[in-house]
């Protein structure tokens, strides 16, 4: 998935300009994807809870393949925009895979497994740009890259279709395990409103539910999450997403202006950071054991480290300091992404894993929409403006965790 996508992403801005788009039009078209993701992430995640992971994943992969196939024939701006629409709506395969993993593994194993999942995803992002860059040197390189990406998604659709699995069996097994765990802990089963509301659908064979019932169930799940008090956790995700996006927003330009670094060296630094991030995914398991499974403490400490590194980068006076920041920044953000996903699932209950992960992705998409605006405003004052603002936002997330989430975390229950 990400191998194919990362072949295309670095080429999009150049391709849309070659079609005659001005920088402003290119920016507006680029924001279409983020806006579609903002509204579709929660819907698709909840949809996967209702109809099952297999059907939703198959649909998402198939429509994404259609989008990248259209991109391969986009010789006009209209075709380009049409190609981005199905991808913006249905490119949620990774979120559904995370929800499926949360169905299949126990709560204690979840950070380890999601960490490995993120590591493999990072490997795809390391290899993809190199292959895409090679293909662009050929005649019609962008179109070749698009068709290769489309072919990879068709291959993924075939894998989803032929691999043996049973959504109903997973849901029933997970339901019964959760119920046993609650009773063993001495608590009343399903005290969480989300789990209480979704328990009735856990054992239903949703493949045969009428379409209207599916839509009603999706809207009900979303309403339950929106009316929950998970917004503290979502706020932490939003602030940290903004902070990280601001760190990367003018990274290449700032290095050129501050340290006279060539674009080639900047590219090497970004590839190095991605490699470190991939290795960091495999550190999540040992780190979780070191913290005795305390995801909240892991998230708090990784957020503090991220805040400090952004502040250090904003005040760096030599390139070796930037290199040092990039190394540990990749580690802290990789662990932080895994922890915030696990914390959402711990607080909200795994019966709504698709809805919760989708809501988290919507929050992240909102951050990707807002970050360029804040970055442009901050750069009006200084090239160091975006990371300075990012450090302030990361500090706000840390303060929120210290003063809001601990009281709810101590009871190990957030009433949703």
Secondary structure blueprint with pairings:
Elements: H1 2-18, H2 23-51, H3 53-71, H4 77-90, H5 93-104, H6 110-136, H7 141-162, H8 167-184, H9 193-202, H10 211-226, H11 231-249, H12 251-259, H13 263-281, H14 284-290, H15 295-314, H16 319-348, H17 353-379, H18 385-403, H19 405-410
Helix pairs in contact: 1-6, 1-7, 2-3, 2-4, 2-10, 2-17, 3-4, 3-5, 3-7, 5-17, 6-7, 6-13, 6-14, 6-16, 11-15, 11-16, 11-17, 11-18, 13-16, 15-16, 15-18, 16-17
Written account of the structure:
This protein starts with a helix and ends in a 6-residue tail after the last helix. 44% of the residues are buried. It is 82% helix and 0% strand. The protein has helices at residues 2-18, 23-51, 53-71, 77-90, 93-104, 110-136, 141-162, 167-184, 193-202, 211-226, 231-249, 251-259, 263-281, 284-290, 295-314, 319-348, 353-379, 385-403, 405-410. Helix 1 (2-18) packs across helix 6. The protein is mainly α and 416 residues long. It is globular, with a radius of gyration of 21 Å. Belongs to the major facilitator superfamily. InterPro entries: MFS, MFS_dom, MFS_trans_sf, Tet-R_TetA/multi-R_MdtG-like. It is a multi-pass membrane protein.
Short description:
Pfam families: MFS_1 (PF07690). With 416 residues, the chain is an all-alpha fold.
């Amino acid at each position: 998935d990400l191998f194919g996508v990362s072949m295309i992403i670095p080429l999009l801005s150049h391709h849309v300009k070659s079609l005659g788009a001005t920088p402003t039009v290119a920016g507006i078209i680029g924001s279409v994807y983020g806006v579609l993701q903002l509204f579709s992430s929660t819907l698709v995640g909840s949809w996967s809870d209702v109809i099952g992971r297999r059907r939703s994943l198959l649909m998402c992969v198939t429509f994404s393949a259609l989008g990248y196939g259209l991109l391969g024939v986009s010789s006009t701006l209209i075709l380009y925009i049409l190609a981005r629409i199905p991808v913006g709506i249905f490119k949620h395969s990774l979120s559904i895979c995370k929800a499926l993993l949360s169905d299949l593994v126990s709560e204690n194993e979840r950070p380890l497994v999601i960490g490995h999942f993120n590591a493999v995803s990072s490997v795809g992002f390391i290899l993809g740009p190199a292959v895409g860059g090679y293909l662009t040197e050929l005649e019609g390189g962008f179109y070749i890259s698009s068709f290769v990406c489309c072919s990879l998604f068709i291959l993924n659709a075939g894998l989803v279709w032929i691999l043996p699995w049973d959504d109903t069996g997973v849901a029933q097994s997970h339901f019964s395990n959760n119920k046993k765990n609650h009773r063993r802990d001495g608590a009343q089963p399903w005290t969480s409103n989300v789990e209480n509301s979704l328990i009735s659908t856990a054992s239903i064979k949703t493949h045969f539910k009428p379409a209207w019932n599916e839509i009603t169930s999706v809207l009900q799940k979303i309403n339950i999450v929106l009316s929950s008090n998970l917004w503290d956790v979502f706020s932490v995700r939003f602030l940290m997403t903004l902070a990280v996006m601001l760190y990367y927003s003018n990274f290449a330009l700032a290095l050129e202006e501050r340290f006279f670094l060539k674009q080639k060296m900047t590219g090497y630094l970004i590839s190095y950071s991605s490699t470190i991030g991939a290795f960091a995914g495999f550190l999540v398991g040992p780190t979780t054991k070191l913290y005795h499974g305390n995801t909240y403490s892991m998230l708090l400490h990784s957020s503090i480290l991220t805040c400090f590194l952004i502040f250090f980068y904003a005040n760096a006076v030599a390139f070796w300091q930037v290199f040092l920041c990039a190394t540990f920044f990749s580690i802290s953000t990789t662990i932080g992404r895994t922890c915030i996903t696990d914390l959402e699932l711990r607080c909200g209950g795994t019966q709504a894993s698709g809805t919760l992960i989708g809501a988290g992705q919507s929050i992240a998409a909102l951050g990707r929409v807002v970050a360029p605006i804040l970055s442009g405003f901050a750069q009006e004052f200084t090239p160091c403006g975006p990371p300075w603002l990012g450090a302030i936002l990361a500090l706000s997330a840390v303060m929120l965790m210290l003063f809001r989430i601990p009281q709810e975390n101590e009871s190990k229950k957030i009433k949703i």
